[in-house]
Design brief:
Blueprint (H helix, E strand, L loop, with lengths): L5 E4 L2 H21 L4 E5 L6 H13 L7 E5 L1 E7 L2 E4 L8 H14 L13 E2 L7 H9 L5 E5 L21 E4 L2 H10 L12 E4 L2 H5 L4 E5 L5 H9 L18 E6 H4 L2
Parallel strand pairs: 1-11, 2-3, 2-7, 3-6, 7-10, 10-11
Antiparallel strand pairs: 4-5, 4-9, 8-9
Helix pairs in contact: 1-2, 2-3
Length: 262
């Protein structure tokens, strides 16, 4: 693998517009070729400008999304009657809620029913059978493009903490305090750190790097450290999981001026 290049754009909004164009073009090309498009998708603050720009473009120039599958990275797990289970889908901090409300509903809003992305095309790893996700993705042809984001404090990607093995796959992961603090900042609806779940089901490092293309986004002054760590690396460094971008077949880092400044 070659070292991932870095592009610096003026603002988060500029990143959103640039990547919305690229992602929607890839989806359109897949449709023209008669094939499904698997889009690896994170939740949280970082991808919001991209998802919002895509919604605006779809409202202005509708295109069909019925062939698009959202391959979500992870979900919080909470204690249930039979052990760990998905967080409530109506909780505003859950990944199911984010995928439905902040991605699918907004993208579909301007499209006729036949052209919308169906509910069954939003995928999550199973809490009780994480390995099934690997098979499901492979059977569908693999992830075409992965939008990625990095934790500010420890470089986690999805729920993969520092120390995650390069060959790790989808699994249930105890969430580190650093990850839980980052998630509290992302979703203030948690209220306190104690209410942030202690486990999640998440894609592994190898699951993510298997994608044909990956775009790692970082913006804001809070992402200067992860930008610096990714720039300094040439390959995956388990101490900072965001460096996985250098292991992707076609990886690129896209940051704004705030994140790039030192």
């Amino acid at each position: 693998m070659s070292r991932a290049p870095i592009a610096v754009l003026p603002t988060p909004e500029a990143i959103g517009e640039e990547l919305a164009d690229r992602i929607l073009r890839g989806m359109s090309e897949a449709r023209a070729a008669g094939r499904r498009f698997l889009f690896g998708s994170p939740t949280g603050r970082t991808p919001r400008p991209v998802y919002a720009a895509m919604a605006r473009r779809l409202a202005a120039q509708p295109q069909e999304l019925s062939h698009v599958t959202l391959v979500m990275m992870d979900e919080y797990l909470v204690e249930g009657a039979r052990g760990l289970e998905y967080a409530p889908a109506d909780a505003p901090w859950s990944c199911h809620y984010f995928a439905r409300v902040e991605i699918a509903d907004r993208w579909n809003a301007s499209l006729p029913p036949a052209h919308r992305m169906p509910d069954e095309s939003i995928w999550f790893p199973l809490a009780g059978d994480p390995g099934e996700y690997e098979t499901r993705i492979a059977d569908a042809g693999g992830i075409d493009l992965f939008l990625l984001a990095s934790g500010a404090s420890d470089g986690h990607v999805a729920f993969n903490p520092p120390g995650s093995a390069r060959d790790s796959r989808t699994r249930v992961i105890p969430l580190s305090d650093e990850t839980r603090r980052d998630n509290l900042a992302t979703f203030p609806a948690f209220g306190t750190l104690e209410t942030v779940p202690y486990h999640g089901v998440s894609m592994g490092i190898a699951t993510i790097t298997d994608a044909r293309e990956a775009l790692m986004v970082a913006w804001g002054a809070g992402k200067r450290l992860t930008t610096s760590r990714m720039q300094a690396a040439e390959r995956y460094d388990a101490d900072w999981p965001a460096t996985l971008i250098h292991e992707c077949p076609r990886g690129e880092i896209i940051v704004d001026r705030e994140a790039a400044s030192r």
